[in-house]
Amino acid sequence: MSVRPRPRIRRPAALTGIVAAAALVLSGCAGATQKAATSDWPNKKPITLLVGFAPGGPADGAARPLAQSLEKELGTPVEVVNKPGATGQVAYGEIARAKPDGLTFGMVNYPSFQTSYLDSARKAGYTRDDFTTLANHVTDARVLVVQPDAPFKNLKEFIAAAKREPRKFTAGTAGKGSGAHFSAIQFEDATGTDLALTHFAEGSGPSAAAFLGKHIDVLFAGVSDVDQMAKDGTGKVIGVMTEERSEFLPDVPTFKEQGVNVMESGQRGFVGPAGLPKDIQDKLSAALAKVIKSEENKEALRKLGLESHYLDPAQYDADLKASEAKYRGLLPKIGRP
Q: Which helix (H) or strand (E) holds 104?
C-alpha cells in the first residue's frame, strides 16, 4: 500500500515575520517582568531573617535590633524566626533551600556554619556553594568562666586542679561542633587536661542557663554570653582567648598572658540562598552595611557585649573559606568524650 506524501504547508513570508516579531515581543515582556520583579525588590513584601539558635542568646539578641533597623532601611517588615537545633544546622539548611528571591536570609555563626557541612557525618545536604554571602556582623571573643565560689583565681590554678582530677569538672558548650566546643578542645590539647564536656545543641542560651543553675562547673562561651555574669558576680571569667584583652572585660587577662596558647573568636554574619539575583544581593548587602556601620547598631551590640565587625560580601566569603582548613583539622577530635 502506498502512502500519499503529506502536503507541505508554506507560510507566507509576511506571516512568518509576524510570528517571529510576536515571539520577540513576548520574550521581551518576560524579561521586563523578571527585571521589574527584582528591581523593585522587596516591594513591601515581608522578609524572614532565620536564626539557628534559641531566643535569649547573643545570636538572637544581635539579630533583633538589626532587623528593626533593616525594616526602616528597606521599608518592609523583617521578622526574626528562631529555628534552633543541631548547633544551627536546622536553620542553615532552611536558608540553603529557600527560594532565591531575597525574602529569606539568615544569620550564620562561625564556626558552627563551616563545621556543619565540613563534617560528613552530619549529612547537612549543603555546602558553602549553596549560599550567597551578604555581610559579617560581629566578632565575639571566647572565654572560660568558672562558678563564682570556685577556688580558682586564674587559669594556672584551674589547670592544676583539672590535671589532678581528670574528668571531674563538667564544662558546658553551645553544642557539638560549636565555637565553644572547639575552644574546649583546643584548651584540653594545650593544657593536657580532660574535662567532662556537656553540649547544648540549642545554643549558648541554654548552656549559660545550665551554668547559672550550677548544673555545670565551667563554661566555654563568648564574651556576650558572660558579660552580665561578670558584672553581677554570677560567673568568674578567668581568661579571654584573643590577642588583646576584651574592651568589655578589661581586667581579665588573655590566655596568652597566662601562658596558654589558645586563640579563638566567634563571628556572626548573614547569608542568603545560592542563586540570589545580583541586584537583590547588592540591595540587601548595601542595606545591611548601612545598618551594621550605624552608631545605633554599634551601641545596641555594646550593650550585649558584642563588637561590630563589618565585612562586605567578598571579604566575608574569603574569610569563611580561609577558616575551613583550621576546623577541618579539628573535626576528628569532636567525637571524643
A: strand 104-110
238-296 pLDDT tens trace: 999 999 999 999 999 999 999 999 999 989 999 999 999 999 999 999 999 999 999 99
Residues 131 and 275 in one domain: yes
User: Are 154 and 239 in a shared domain?
Assistant: yes
Determine the length of the chain. Answer: 337
53 in a domain, yes or no? yes
CA-CA distances (angstroms) from residue 288 to 15, 31, 66, 113, 265?
52, 28, 8, 20, 22
Overall average pLDDT of the 6-26 stretch = 46
Please name the residue that has the C-alpha cell 575551613: 324
pLDDT number for residue 162: 98
Is residue 32 predicted with pLDDT exceeding 90? no
Rounded Cα distance, 328 and 122, in Å:
14
Tell me which of 233, 258, 283 is where a domain ends.
Answer: 258
Q: Which of 322, 305, 58 is nearest to 174 (CA)?
A: 58
Question: What is the band of 87 on the pLDDT scale with cuts at 50, 70, 90?
Answer: confident
At residue 105, does pLDDT exceed 60? yes
What total of structural domains would you count in the chain?
Answer: 2
Sequence-separated (6 or more) residues with CB below 8 Å from residue 181: 173, 174, 175, 197, 199, 220, 334
Q: Are 85 and 201 in contact (CB under 8 A)?
A: yes
- What letter does residue 254 receive in the DSSP assignment? B
Q: 87 and 112 in contact (C-beta within 8 Å)?
A: yes
Beta strand segments in 162-213, E: 170-173, 196-199
Cell of 37: 520583579
